[in-house]
């Protein structure tokens, strides 16, 4: 399964955030063992549309969809030159599909900062430098190999890779991540094959002070991170890891009261989960009308048979068609009957590209 990896310097709040995530996950009825491994946690994707579907088409059970976070601990500085632990850190990042980069954006004299002062930009660059150096090394190695073949044999595949490497090298040398370059579809395949660290999508999470949780984007530290993210082709959000950990431990009543006090409508964690889910290019379709109202995860761009296969491989193999209703149409018309009468229920075939929010019923041969 796809996983989002949490990285950051020591003492910035990674474990706190990961705890909040797994605690929220540990309450899930369907996943009593939310922590698969010490550093892997399963989370539910909060989705208000599920409640609305359940309201209109009641079922015995509501089942949200889930995905994984991985907590990537380990040393950071010098990792790209490091043996053992350093390499392990980079190897662990290589395994994840998106990077959630936690940055300290709170002052607290009691919590030691590795470099002695709170400086979000310096922190970010400490990590990014290691990632860029590791990629540069990989690209240079590959370059040395491919250049000769490309220039002597004029082999098409080698030439195509050579052209990609020629673009990557100067970018990395100028400290720009691989994701900052725009690729066409063929080039993208070549880039994917290089398994670079800086081609993965990134979300910067500014870990702000608890006092800022009601208005987490108001602080100067956050602003610095946001400006950096915009230039770095990355996304950004602010959260207070400590406050989220506390919220995750509360029962529903306390939670509601606490959030009202803070003037927020949902935990920041929900936003983090949704943002990471999107970063992984994941989308949701629903099934309803049976025993359960359920959300399912698919990759953006998947066609109907593949999406059916998410539920069961038999559904994909024997796929005939998918009776499809957009969530917004159900929401607007209020019942499946009314949707049908309005002509908004669609019969979709094998080539249909599933849309986020589709409510689907698959017809298949056994
Ligand atoms: P990690 O090394 O990145 O995993 O960092 P931890 O999650 O262990 O956090 C390091 C210390 O910072 C712990 O004592 C946390 O309680 C504290 N911490 C984490 N988030 C916050 C925060 O938002 N505000 C304050 N004041 N302390 C925090």
From TrEMBL:
ATPase that binds to both the 70S ribosome and the 50S ribosomal subunit in a nucleotide-independent manner. Belongs to the TRAFAC class OBG-HflX-like GTPase superfamily. OBG GTPase family. YchF/OLA1 subfamily. Pfam families: MMR_HSR1 (PF01926), YchF-GTPase_C (PF06071). ATP binds at residues 11-16. Its cofactor is Mg(2+). This is Ribosome-binding ATPase YchF. Residues 2-259 form the OBG-type G domain.
